[in-house]
User: What shape does this take?
Amino acid sequence: MVERLREQGIRDEKVLAAMATIPRHQFVEKGLAFSAYDDCALPIGLQQTISQPFVVARMIEILCEGRHLGRALEIGAGCGYQAAVLSLVASEVYAVERLRALLDRARENLRPLRLPNLRLKCGDGTQGLPEAAPFDTIIVAAGGMSVPPALKNQLAPDGRLLIPVGEADQQLLLIERQGNVFRESWRDAVRFVPLLTGTE
Ligand code: SAH
Assistant: This one.
């Protein structure tokens, strides 16, 4: 899988090493383990999916460009895979998921990996995680039509936020904060499940 990521253009060695370390087959349903290293999204139950390896690597690589991830917040923890990869690259990771049942699965998937700098929370990620803010890095694994204001507000003064924006055709939007200035740049085309509100 890592060789393929290299061929697809992922260059950041820290990211490639993290992708090589986290066993993706432990995050998918047992019957799908044989496909775990293919470059595709797979179902993880409750109509949600584990993201495609290339997209996980690409998003983390964009956020790493020229800097450290520092304290990171992930919105949409799902099965916990990307949070695990992030925990090897960032100093601390908080991952928020709105579906309690999925979060329970993520906890089970993550337990054997013993990642001491990763914390999971059930909550509506459109509100961010005020009790742990500010964050140097915020990564959103679900797409909506707009950027939730709480996420911008919870960025550290030089923080970065990466979020898929759009409905059918989504594109990654990178927001770089410099004090009170928020610089936006559009990146790769992507396809994520919808960013919803509330918890279930
Ligand atoms: N990060 C996962 C991908 C999960 S798919 C991986 O590593 O593969 C996106 C997840 O976002 C879904 O589990 C969905 O329930 C969750 N989600 C959608 N809206 C949310 C919100 N407002 N707050 C938190 N999680 C949300």
About this structure: The chain has one domain: 2-190. The chain has a mean pLDDT of 97.
